[in-house]
């Protein structure tokens, strides 16, 4: 036999054994329905807690409290109403809060007014 061929065979066998030794063993287990529902419930509980935290932090803001006071709702009433919300309502409100624009949105009418004021300022100068 050729020495280079023996060397290649040796390295091929060594590499193959090394790859087989480093490969993780595959394991398959059955997952019960109870275990699956528990993991889903814990994930939904974490999401619900985060959504409630979002609502609480939004309602704790001073500008929100002032607007609610203007509308005739005290802080105690709003807390009671928040506590009475269902999980779906909490998720919906938190989604609406998270999707609100940070600085508000300008409509077409506001854009036209700003443009007219800019034109008047330029003409006045």
Task: Kindly describe this structure.
InterPro entries: PA2779-like (IPR046735). Residues 1-28 form the signal peptide. Keywords: Membrane, Signal, Transmembrane, Transmembrane helix. The protein has helices at 3-22, 33-59, 62-70, 75-83, 87-99, 108-124. The chain has 125 residues and is an all-alpha fold. It has a domain at 42-99. The mean pLDDT is 79.
Largest sheet descriptor: none
* Shape designation: elongated
Q: Pick out the low-confidence regions.
A: none
* N-to-C CA distance: 98 Å
- Helix amount, in percent? over 70%
Strand proportion, as a percent range, falls in under 5%
Number of strands: 0
Structural class by secondary-structure content: mainly alpha
Average pLDDT, to the nearest integer? Answer: 79
Helix/strand order, N-terminal first: HHHHHH
């Amino acid at each position: 036999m050729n020495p280079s061929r023996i060397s290649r065979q040796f390295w091929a066998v060594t590499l193959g054994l090394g790859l087989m030794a480093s490969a993780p063993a595959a394991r398959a287990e059955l997952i019960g329905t109870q275990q699956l529902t528990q993991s889903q419930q814990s994930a939904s509980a974490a999401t619900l807690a985060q959504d409630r935290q979002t609502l609480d932090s939004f309602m704790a803001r001073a500008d929100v409290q002032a607007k609610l006071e203007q509308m005739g709702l005290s802080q105690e009433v709003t807390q009671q109403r928040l506590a009475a919300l269902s999980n779906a309502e909490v998720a919906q409100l938190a989604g609406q809060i998270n999707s609100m624009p940070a600085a508000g949105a300008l409509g077409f009418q506001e854009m036209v007014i700003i443009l007219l004021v800019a034109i008047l300022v330029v003409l006045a100068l």
